[in-house]
Amino acid sequence: MRNYYQASSKLDSFCDLIIEKTQSYNASQKKTVQKPKRIDSVFARTKDHLVVSSGTFFKKPFNIIKAFYLLKKHDLELHEYLKESLADHVQDKKNIKWDGQAHQMFLKMFSNGKCLYNVLNTMHKLGILETFIPEFKKIKRKVQHDIYHIYTVDAHSLIAVRELAKLESGNFKNGFPFLTSIMTEMTSSDRKVLYLSALLHDIGKGKKGDHSILGRKIIKDIGLRFKLSEKEISEIAFLVENHLLMPILSQRRNIDDPPRLGLEHVSANDLATEKIPF
To answer: How far apart are alpha carbons 176 and 160 in whole angstroms?
Structure first.
């Protein structure tokens, strides 16, 4: 099944590229193509697309991450030729040396959910997300053989980010007013922790063993590499390790039971293995 999803994903990306090139050609024939406006010395934009205005783009890996940051900031899409160039570049240079500047630019995108899913999904489709976070490659197109998951692990993780963004934007205000109020009142720092936790909550599924426990260890490695604060690493690690706590309680326990004392530090793993008899 993983091979099937790998192949179908490539086909999907190829078809998208052909459609975009066809639309671009039709626009050029009708002379409706807009002259790009400069954003800085490297990037420019049309009405809907980000383009490169300098041949120095690939000389600095930081520019790749900045391109996606600008997509999010200005609510743009990659021009099809830039998209194709990025995919080819990542294919040729699989071990890109990312610096701290690129890591910090990437983290800036997580301060709110605006366009975050679209940007991360584009990075993922082009193979950039897995080069930037190598641990993500382990869960790419990984199939989950159970009744709870209908998406591969990578798609499931990205969709978790998308649903949080919908919560922040007020899409669920009628059904979940309390959760919506919490999300909208959060600081940008707290949102960063929450969105990163959603993206990486199943990162441990690429290895054998309890993926929640493994995920906690992986988060610490990623956090140090991205120079997150100790507090941020601790919070993300906690959320990743315990992300099964709510579904386990809701699906296996009577949620109307009165709370019991002494359960402040119960883990999802303890509940799942029936170590806590309640």
So the answer is: 16
Residues 6+ apart with CB under 8 A from 98: 61, 62, 65, 132
Q: Answer whether 216's CB lies under 8 Å from 171's CB.
A: no
Q: Which two tokens stand for residue 33?
A: 């193509």
pTM, entire model:
0.83
Give φ, ψ of 43 to 5 degrees: -115, 155
Q: Report residues of the chain scoring pLDDT below 70.
A: 1-2, 4-6, 14, 20-21, 23-34, 94, 146-148, 255, 257-278
Residues with Cβ < 8 Å from 57, sequence gap 6 or more? Answer: 42, 63
What one-character-per-residue DSSP string does 254-270 give?
Answer: -TTSPP-TT-TT--HHH
> Looking at residue 31, what DSSP letter applies?
T
Boundaries of every domain in the chain: 133-255+265-278
Which tokens sit at 244? 């099964």
